[in-house]
């Protein structure tokens, strides 16, 4: 059976890539045909390069201090569904840091090469 700690480590890799402003490293954590559904009711993003472009836009917009926290995981041999919280911040024009966050769900699928990649990611 799959160790949940592996997915906590994947969350940490995501946060490290985001916070170091590396959208290609973020996208590498997603399957080729992954789907990202941003909040609130944002445009659905499909495909690894589109995922990279989407997160590059958030980074360019000034989103900082991204953090994923897993609360629960449902684990099978080939799929893991994690639920939890996300948090981030932005600096307002007046120099005041605005913090925000919400709920998150990520579904990982085991790839033929044994890697686990995100196939869907949704947050609110």
UniProtKB/TrEMBL annotation:
Q: What is this protein called?
A: YybH family protein
InterPro entries in the cross-refs: NTF2-like_dom_sf, SnoaL-like
User: The SnoaL-like domain covers which part of the protein?
Assistant: 13-116
Alphabetical list of Pfam families matching this protein: SnoaL_2
